[in-house]
Amino acid sequence: MNDERTLEFVLGMIRRFQALALWLILLLVAALLVVTVGLRSSLGRFQDDLHYRPPQSTEGAGEPLAEDIVIAQTVYVPVYSHVYVHDGKPYPLTATLSIRNTDPHKSFLVKSVRYYDSKGKLVQSYLERPMRLAPLATTEVLVEEGDVRGGSGANFIVEWVSEELVTQPVIEAVMIGATSQQGISFVCSGTVIAETRRDAGAGL
Known about the structure:
Layout: H1 2-50, E1 71-79, E2 82-85, E3 89-92, E4 94-100, E5 108-116, E6 122-125, E7 131-133, E8 138-143, E9 154-162, E10 170-179, E11 182-189, E12 191-197
């Protein structure tokens, strides 16, 4: 009789242990599901944040009057929609124009960003109105790999102005391409082709 009671007690303990283990497993699975969903959501938001967004004109930015301008520059940036390889075969590239405000305290106004093809013909203007670039902020323009309107001799013309002296912005184009096991990337820096400066309180 004692052996039967002992066996029933042991079996009961085993069943309770199995039930407890099952509940623990279910709780662990639920916790893993919550973590997985959270990670996927965070990753999705992270990818959305990284996704390219074209530059937007700043509402109410307003173009400064000539007497308010302390410095104004026009910058030429070479861009390549493709380069030539293997006896003249075109190698397509994705190009990103990057305009970076290097000043940690002052903003400036990007007046226009215009894209020209190899023959000097205007392909596209990327700003309907001027946009203000905040201190240390960056704006980008993307020319996708399949966009061959510019050709191998394309360029951007960027115009910017400031109502006060600011540090020189970095304006450059990054080209990148990849096919099969082969890849290529390079950077082209902008060149100032026109500039206006004046001392504060003086006329242009």
